[in-house]
Amino acid sequence: MTLLAQIVTPNWYLVLAAVLFTIGAVGLLVRRNPLVMFMCVEVMLNAVNLTFVSFSRALNDLGGQAVVFFVMVVAAAEVVVGLAIVVAVLRRRPLATADDVATLKG
Amino acid sequence: MPVGTMVVKPVPELVTFILAGAIVVIGALGVVLLPQPVHAALSLVATLFGVAVLFVAQDAHLLAAVQVIVYAGAIVVLFLFVIMLLGVDEADDLQIEPIVAQRPLALVAGVGILGLSLVSLFLAGGATGASSMLMAPDATETNIAQLGRLLFTEYAFAFEATAILLTISVVGAVMLARRAPQDGAPYPEDETVQSGVAS
Questions:
Q1: Of B142, B48, B166, whose CA–CA distance to A42 is shortest?
Q2: Over the stretch B90-144, which tens digit does the pLDDT of each residue have?
Q3: Which residues of chain B neighbour A30 with C-beta distances below 8 Å?
Q4: How many CB atoms lie within 10 A of CB A60?
Q5: What phi, psi does B89 have (nearest 5°)?
Q6: B70, B52 Cβ separation under 8 angstroms
Q7: Into how many domains does chain B fold?
Q8: Is B153 a residue whose pLDDT tops 50?
Q9: CATH at B15
Q10: What percent of chain A has pLDDT over 70?
Q11: Backbone dihedral region of A60: left (phi > 0), alpha (psi from -120 to 50 degrees) or beta?
């Protein structure tokens, strides 16, 4: 039973989370549309959440799931404020990309 | 084995992992590679849903529900709403590379991040650590009851702090997205941006 149950070990989930985090990080570095960059940040946050849940199950500890709950709340707050900033910037400067924030230098 | 103990069914979990993992990775690649922001947002839904399935596979039932409701329901809708509101639904020209060697450097950084994570994971011997004594899941209770009790006892202070955080972020979002009082006045000439190529 224990041998069979270990076909999918927690390491599989951790490797998948690492791949997901990498995709999000590369996307954040490559894309210039601020909205898509935000989506890449969400992908990275989800990868970390997956890691927390995997450790929560592997170590038999509900604390990991509680942390994921707080990460979700903070991610929601982050998206709300971030999108408000994007709206404020894009309303004044349509079609701006992340590079154009350099004009803040004045 | 007592009734209600988490019975791990190996082969179904393997199938679930492969299918959900494929959805997650394909969705994430779609977010990065699709030129249209709307398509990227819809691709993000696939990733979030796949992660929710993986949560269920790991007995995190409350988090799976919250993942679908908050992320796929609220956050992606917020993304789509902003895309519609601003009309930034033109496709990005992915051929433009404003910073010299940005893409190769990003790929090098990605390989570095992935390699570092995997090397550290397997050097540490995988998911190791002491099993919890205080916060072990109780097989006789549902996941949501245990997590709810944990949030209102052990993490009560953090829970209240998130309430304050959400209030502040709502107020901040309203302040930021509000129209300026002198709205209607023409914008100065230097407000146009250089890289708005898709006009």
A1: B48
A2: 776 667 776 777 888 889 999 999 999 999 888 887 777 777 777 777 778 888 8
A3: 32, 102-103, 106
A4: 17
A5: -95, 15
A6: no
A7: 2
A8: yes
A9: 1.20.120.1200
A10: 92
A11: left
Of B25, B75, B196, the CB nearest to A19: B25
Q: Would you say B76 and A81 are in contact if contact means Cβ atoms under 8 Å apart? A: no
What range does the domain containing B157 cover?
143-179
Q: Which of B8, B63, B70 sits opposite A5 (nearest CB)?
A: B8
What residue in A sits closest to B109 (Cα-Cα)?
Answer: A26
- The distance of A104 to chain B (nearest Cα, Å) reads 11
In this structure, how many other beta carbons lie within 10 angstroms of the beta carbon of residue B87? 10
Contacts for B53 with CB less than 8 Å, ≥ 6 apart: B16, B19, B20, B23, B64
Structural domains in chain A plus CATH codes = 8-95 (1.10.287.3510)
CA distance A19 to A34: 22
Residue B125 lies in a domain: no
Answer yes or no: are the C-beta atoms of A41 and B32 closer than 8 Å: no
**Chain A residues whose beta carbon lies within 8 Å of the beta carbon of residue B145:** none
Q: Is B60:A50 a contact under the CB 8 Å cutoff?
A: no
